TrEMBL record:
Any Gene Ontology CC annotation: spliceosomal complex
Major subcellular site: nucleus
This protein's UniProt keywords: mRNA processing, mRNA splicing, Nucleus, Spliceosome
Protein name stated in the entry: Splicing factor 3B subunit 3
Record domain RSE1/DDB1/CPSF1 C-terminal: where: 686-936
Domain RSE1/DDB1/CPSF1 second beta-propeller: 269-589
Amino acid sequence: MFACLEIDYEEADTDPTGEAAHKTQQTLTFYELDLGLNHVVRKYSEPLEEHANFLVSVPGGNDGPSGVLICSENYLTYKNLGDQHDIRCPIPQEKNNDLDDPERGMIFVCSATHKTKSMFFFLAQTEQGDIFKITLETDEDMVTEIKLKYFDTVPVASAMCVMKTGFLFVASEFWKPDEYYLYQIAHLGDDDDEPEFSSAMPLEEGDTFFFAPRPLRNLVLVDELDSLSPILACQVADLANEDTPQLYMLCGRGPRSSVRVLRHGLEVSEMAVSELPGNPNAVWTVKRRIDEEYDAYIIVSFVNATLVLSIGETVEEVTDSGFLGTTPTLSCSALGEDALVQVYPDGIRHIRADKRVNEWKTPGKKTIVKCAVNQRQVVIALTGGELVYFEMDPTGQLNEYTERKEMPSEAVCMALANVPVGEQRSRFLAVGLADNTVRIISLDPSDCLSPLSMQALPAAAESLCIVEMGAGEAGSDGEPGTTGSLYLNIGLQNGVLLRTVLDQVTGDLADTRTRYLGSRPVKLFRIRMQGSEAVLAMSSRSWLSYYYQNRFHLTPLSYESLEYASGFSSEQCPEGIVAISTNTLRILALEKLGAVFNQVSFPVDYTPRKFVIHHESAHLIITETEHNAYTEDTKKQRRIQMAEEMQEAAGEEEQELAREMAEAFLNEDLPESVFSAPKAGPGMWASVIRVLDPVEGKTEQLIKLDQNEAALSIALLKFANQPDNQHFVIVGVAKDLQLNPLDNGSHSYPFSVNVDCTSLELVHKTPVDEVPTAICSFQGRILVGVGRMLRLYDMGRKKLLRKCENKHIPNLIVNIQAMGHRIFVSDVQECVYMVRYKRQENQLIIFADDTHPRWITTATILDYDTVATADKFGNIAVIRLSGNVTDDVDEDPTGNKALWDRGLLNGASQKTGIVANFHVGEICMSLQKATLIPGEIIFRSVHIIILSNQVIPRCDTYFFIYFFRMFWMVIYVSSSTQLMQVNRKALLMIWTVPQVKFQRNLKTSERA
């Protein structure tokens, strides 16, 4: 058996007056599935008094009385088949919510059912986020009463689920800063002092119950999942001077909105930062015994000394560790079961567990220039390119191999892999030489120190690191995990990282991958992440190469540049990093492996709509506009007015009580970000203009507009008739805006900007005829889309001066872009119009348009002839003017615009061609052409933000990159009208015009 809500529109469709549609009733219909006949039988149907928005099924059979709860405006009704009477209960409303629109009702938006063998109850949430616990009282399987009790207030959800383990999952949308929440149900709310509302309580028709919202009492927030939805605007810029651009986004809606700053890289947590007596040049961590879980010492090397720190509850200096403190250290490591080894320029120091020390001194005047160590082996390179090999014997003694190896040139770096489990040694030694080569040398006793393979390098090597990566985890049924592969990582002095597969049998090098990391030489360090080996690469920015969830990742760290690092393990930080930067020692922890971005969020008051960037001061100027909302001043005025009405309505004996209630009402401070903002009603607007420092998160200035003023557009520019150092911000504002039909009184507000962009000063207001939906800087003036009119304004003393206008845009201008003398104007449903400004004639002339109507949401210019657009149906299109159109428009020797006046297909005389069209499947809110990471075309953007790489004018190739919900995608667009979709591992040809013909996988190395 199942029930549904139905409406019969047959009469309404045939009635042109609309009266039938107004009288159409909603019906509740019960159906039964007959499994024998394999069809559905309609059992019962009845009309409803109010329109319902959703149904909640009541457990039946042995678990409950069956039936449904009907959720409608202001009421909750129980219905069932048979002799069951309808039970109706009002939905409680919040106390002191008189700021809301008095005509606005209350509805439930989602629910969850919890059922056990002995009882069941429902959790239903209102559109304000308040959750009520609903129970049914029964008498011989007949429901006699509905009881509601206020439970808690959480973000407004689209769905909720009560788990058997006692958790409540809330899937909420458009909430700051997260989208999914997991709560633990700490109490069921049966024993608290909250009032319980019942359908048996006598109430007059239209009256309801009231309750007081409060912070969480029965629920405890356990976890949350980050979300950026919805993103309303985005720009890419490097305002923090980090060499890599940040993504500045406007997210959320209402009081839960925020400005997000996204950085490409892993989030880094600082566990400790300590200053050192000088600038160290290296740092390591070692354990006392091989079976210990945590590190025991931090060894810090200086130019002429070595500092040993013990790791415990605090980090303290020790002097009896056995390390030589009067010399710099080249490397150190745990050796064997319980020994330590220190390599310094004049020799090797082998420190036993009982503090006995064995030393090996360099012969003659030679010194150790480079070295490589692991748990059982030590290899050093002396001046002149001579290699000396040491290996630990079964007694724990470090023995020198009888022969030495002369290399053809000086060794500049060396690396040993860790000793594999169950083996005596690591078989391969990697040596980087000054002749721009890397050589693999065998350490097997049968051919010790013999060369195995060599690889030429494009630049001198700076560091080497051999790690085993790619090992799969063990299966749940005890199956062993897959073994990984050996990778030789080569850091070059030109900032490039090479990763080469090292054959574990032959020692051959193959399948080299290249990645540019930064402007400084690349230093490599082996650490552990998620129980596996990883490589930390340091250049002008630090990067982490690791294997996570069956994928290789190379991700930058969102942290300042470091100089040297080592793995760190303690009870407080099991998998951390100890690093040095200038004269500081830092202990770091990496969080959220696999994440592409880390983010910083700054809350704002209303829904942020648009923003511009003042690059000289690195500040954002944001317009925030909220419909169905009050300004702060209006809220205060209404609260004071309501408090006075409370005291006036009270009798003489109740004056003291009324005064206390009025004071409590005025002092009530429930955060709107949690308990929602009051709804003012349609046609009510609240707006502010915010000057924000996104680096510090500080609001420099907040300009509050009057009630019912809606800031819709913004632009930052310099006027040609004003001083060169004077910037202006132009804001398009609609007064008393009605959305349907569109009606208002509008103005344009120019604000002057001070030098450091910390304050705005209103210059004057300019009234306009219709809604100013788009503003664009153009040759020292401004272009404004006023409804369907395109106007050119200049700065005047008392208002903006209209210079010229074009009235031939058919509907509503939503976007304006300009390059040179050419203007690309986007109409709300008729695609893009190409407009040319003729300065001598002071005219704006439409010379070309598109043949396909598009409901444009955003657009960006790719070059002088090409523009990318996005529409409301989830399509991304690239349209271009042909070459002959460009020549004809730029050079019209007649001067009479005869070419443009001809017209074609009821439009402009010239038509654009479609270069490419791609269906994204989601509404795109932002398009931008941006410069990304040097040497990297695959970059990140979020939730239908489209980025392109640097485009040379008249180039036939573009790259678009976007991130949609759970996957990355790169689209390659060429003049041959082919789209290529790229994921992180391979390129996949997915679509070609006119039809799908083939699919082709390309190696990752072919990305370039």
